[in-house]
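Second attempt. The first submission of Ribosome-recycling factor had a stray character pasted in from the spreadsheet, which I only caught after the job came back as garbage. Lesson logged: always re-copy from the clean sequence file. Corrected sequence (189 aa) follows.
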Amino acid sequence: MADDTFELDTDDLKRRMDGAMANLRTEFASLRTGRASASMLEPVQVDAYGQMTPINQVGTVNVPESRMVTINVWDKGLVGKVEKAIRESGLGINPQLNGTIIMLPIPELNEERRRDLTKVAGQYAEHCRVAVRNVRRDGMDQTKRAKNDSNLSEDDQKFWETEIQELTDKYIALIDKALEHKQEEIMQV
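This time the job returned cleanly.
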């Protein structure tokens, strides 16, 4: 009986670790790599119609070239607010207006800025590792409680602890691989 609930618990652990990985991918997508990407505008919010709204809900975001992002703002009255939101976002991009289209030329990153971005990527990866380890700790606590509360044998407890550790090691390796890939992407000139 205890084994059946642990099958469900390992599925829950996998789901939570997948959530940590999805969050890491989102954070990595927001890092500027010197190439144009629509995802770099995801954190930018515009004061539209009395509330903060993501840019992709007030206009169409396109990447026509490797170093250019364009935003075709649907409401002419919001063009200035979108431009202001981009300037104040801290992305380091200077928007250029062309009617209702805002062009964002992406400048080259210098070596120092690239190194800073790799450090930020490392911090994001470490946060993800901590989240995965917290899920591991929860799983280990569940096995200890099950052993104390029920008739879960010591062998079964060791089996589940080994399963949880192998799952944790797999996700840590995935995080390290994603970090390595992102750092290479950032450092690529």
